[in-house]
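DATA SHEET
Item: assembly model
Revision: 1
Owner: S.N.
Input lines:
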Amino acid sequence: MTCIAMLGYGTVGSGVAELILKNKNRLRKNIKDELILSNVLVRNLEKHKESDNINILTKDIEDIFRGNVDIVVEAMGGVNPAYEYVKRALQLKKHVVTANKDLIAEHGGELLDIANKNGVVLRFEASVGGGIPILKSLSECLVGNNIKGIKAILNGTTNFILSKMSKENMSYEEALKLAQDMGFAEANPESDVMGYDAARKLSILSTMAFEEKVNWKNIKINGITDIDTVDFQYAQGEGFEIKLLAIGEYQDNSIYASVSPVMVRKNSTLGRIENEYNAILIDGDAVGDVVFTGKGAGMFPTASAVFSDIVDIIQNKKEKGILFDYNEASVDTLWRKENKWLLRVNTRNRVDAMAGLSELFPYCKIITKGMYGLEDEVAAFVKSENEAVLDRNIETLREKIDCNNIKKMMMLED
Amino acid sequence: MTCIAMLGYGTVGSGVAELILKNKNRLRKNIKDELILSNVLVRNLEKHKESDNINILTKDIEDIFRGNVDIVVEAMGGVNPAYEYVKRALQLKKHVVTANKDLIAEHGGELLDIANKNGVVLRFEASVGGGIPILKSLSECLVGNNIKGIKAILNGTTNFILSKMSKENMSYEEALKLAQDMGFAEANPESDVMGYDAARKLSILSTMAFEEKVNWKNIKINGITDIDTVDFQYAQGEGFEIKLLAIGEYQDNSIYASVSPVMVRKNSTLGRIENEYNAILIDGDAVGDVVFTGKGAGMFPTASAVFSDIVDIIQNKKEKGILFDYNEASVDTLWRKENKWLLRVNTRNRVDAMAGLSELFPYCKIITKGMYGLEDEVAAFVKSENEAVLDRNIETLREKIDCNNIKKMMMLED
């Protein structure tokens, strides 16, 4: 018999409770064990008074730690007080399963260390990609590979918004409003639309893939709040979509890590991922490209991943878990390979801008005003040997001509 | 230290040997173990006289069993003598890793049983989907799900042929020839093009997913040898592609299992899988649709999966492996849901055929002769409440009109 205590009884928590109940017989048959949900920590007992589980709910965290609990499931979200509770649970030699990307991105290394020292396991499959089995695949199934790169859509909310902007011609504000109405976006969407959520997930993913700690604060982060319908017109004119892409890639001796809106081919694997779906493309030196797609969030997809972590712990109780105490990686925020970029130069001096662009960039495809009718803009697809050179050229252009703003966006052709 | 013996030193075997060498340091660091390749069984020593591993090659299977071997990697392919060797290895309490779908589809249940009785593990991740981590994902990561259905492209050779027929307008014969020239198809391509290879993989996948033994001999199997360029014209006219699809799906109390050419939307997840790539879509009741894509064969993708099985065994030596001793499933070869189908009626009596079709099928979209110019054919997209009714209607039509052949193909709209 395995006793489970849960911290939090919101969407994820109640999903996990339901899966535990639903899989009772199957677990008994397949792994000869019984899962008992023995305690659930809630903030407000009153709110759950109709729940079937009312007799195991508690407001007192000490009830959780006092009990004879084997595994603590942390489903409260946010860094505090989750951090303190998880730390105490591990120190008390309880295994911990969490879906909390903020907590792992912030304190993963330290918590895994505490877990290892105490002979217990900390698992967090649900923290990246919801129900998509990506962390286990990375750490166990692709163990014979050197991972060369990751390209991923890790945030369902922003992918939903970008899909609606692209397919239904909505403005950013309209699409965000729809996402909020449909429950895909929070009332305060900052963490999603600014790219922080995706960056935390990329930090976890890259740290596991590259076996060096990729601190999420070192990742270059651009959200989608600056994307407008004209960006989509430029992209679509070339057969491209715009996606908020998380990229982790080995470049020489450092790891390029960024979250930003990127143009990808409409018909590419990532270009086709729509609405709330996530996708993760892993490039391993032995396996080649492997792609994982599915719902990156939601009650049951997330609960499915939490549940698999629980079963894993039961089946391998004595095994050491993931190691995460890697050295801090040297993180690079500039793309070092030759690439195409979209530049949008906001200026009243269109002729000078065109002259300047074509002088600075040997490959330069200028989009004429007539196409999308912006009076005060010159746009061009340019090629640059790397991002540092691109940025220098942008600076030169800025000095040369009278312009307000130059916006750049990467264009991935493969 | 873990001693590994290998049976076979062809493409897969040499890939595994290379990965073992390449990952030496990493394994020592991460799992504190050393892998030693101690023996390799080959048929012809002469052929490998230039090999770096010449000193550990042997023609005598007894050398393999005599040694102090922990894990036997079976990389010879085919059912015999692999079956006998694997059985003996398990009885001698050696763990076994194999990439051999024929062996597992034929004898998987018995061999897993022997493994369990002897306290060792039999693993076969590479037998389905090459380097794509699908079996572990199914059995461990999706353990909280009831699997409702599987739709998959499991054979890279046929997918390559169909891609070339569709995109480059090649005939079946031309595309097959190209596949053979490029090394994607064997000189004798029967097992691929007749659908047997995909059916064996579907049998393994379905048996694990549905926890009932889906015997591959009970699967409805149609290969791609009858597909012609006109099929592609009909499909493309509706925005569809043709894929050799392996489908396993719960229908009432039985499992529908088939491998056959199916029309899927050009822009759907499976419609976009091209050339030698494989894709597996799993529909779980908690997680929803999850899709896994990657190279389904080849030296290093396959070796990547074999290697992960080896590491898994080292890390969990004392664990029981997969259970496979399920009851024989009731396998259904008729699709029980309402669906659209393409019917191609080969007849000189076109007017009667059109009249018959429109009388028998309330939904009937007849493709007029002018479109693709076949003088002796009437084609139609029809809807039928299930496949049994469809087949009855086809019989009625056959009796009613003078026709040679009626060809049907399923059209999946979602």
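QC remark: Residues 339-412 of chain A form a domain with the Alpha-Beta Plaits fold (CATH 3.30.70.1150).
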